[in-house]
Amino acid sequence: MDIKEIMALSLRRKHHDLQMTQEELAERAGLSACYVGAIERGDVSASVTVLGQIAEALGVDPGDLLKKASPLSKSKAA
């Protein structure tokens, strides 16, 4: 799994955990919903600046969006 896919999964998981839609996330981050969707699908690579904007909108450290989910995290979600 490459870093783009890891970020896509982390981003999707985090905003769902916060019960936030893509549109809400995009608005908070100052981005278009289409662009956030493309990041979540792994169609585009987010710049470091965009990573920071998204992390701030989610209230997380930018590095958290670049970490693979641990097996424990996956079992908690199931």
From TrEMBL:
GO MF terms, alphabetically ordered: DNA binding; DNA-binding transcription factor activity
InterPro entries: Cro/C1-type_HTH, Lambda_DNA-bd_dom_sf, TransReg_Diox_bact_type
Protein name, UniProt field: Helix-turn-helix protein
Taxonomic lineage from the root: Bacteria, Pseudomonadati, Pseudomonadota, Alphaproteobacteria, Hyphomicrobiales
The keyword DNA-binding belongs to this UniProt entry's keyword annotation: yes
Coiled-coil residue windows: none
Key words, A-Z: DNA-binding
Pfam family membership, one: HTH_3
GO cellular component annotations of the record: cytosol
Residue intervals of the HTH cro/C1-type domain: 9-65
